[in-house]
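FYI - complex with zinc ion, inputs then prediction.
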Amino acid sequence: MHEIYDAYISSTALEKAEKLFELAAKQNLEALGLLVGNVYSNKGKEYVLVENFITAKNLPTAVSVKFTKESFSELTKAYMRHFKEKKIIVGWIHSHPTYGCFLSQTDINTQKRFFSAPFNIAMVVDPMRIQNSRMQEKVFRVNANGYYEISFCIYDSK
Ligand SMILES: [Zn+2]
């Protein structure tokens, strides 16, 4: 029997994010974007499907990243097409160049403030840590006690 993962990530969406993270990492900067998709249920178990990655102008440093004020109208524009297809923001993704995948206290606060639905995910990528020719990638959720890692797989969307 196939395992049911907590999250399924489109390979094309992830590649878009990875390219951005790689470019930013060359300048020793973080980067971020939003994950668009939906939540489904299989045999009573809920899972998140990530179908697209959208982003806008980032305001990054080596250890933090956020959107600018202007980014929000850019993001809204990027999201409209997906909104019409009844897709939702299922979470966000950002990079931690060289320092590994975890949620900082700032990341936890961001999750609580902007991604507070129980299904919302936070994906972290370290584009400088390569394992089996892939960047280190982890997916998390936040609860009252802190955060925990969830299972995910990357599906071929080409
Ligand atoms: Zn972070």
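Strands lie at 7-10, 32-42, 45-54, 58-60, 65-67, 88-95, 121-131, 134-143, 146-150, 152-155. Residues 94, 96, 104, 107 surround zinc ion (CB under 6 Å).
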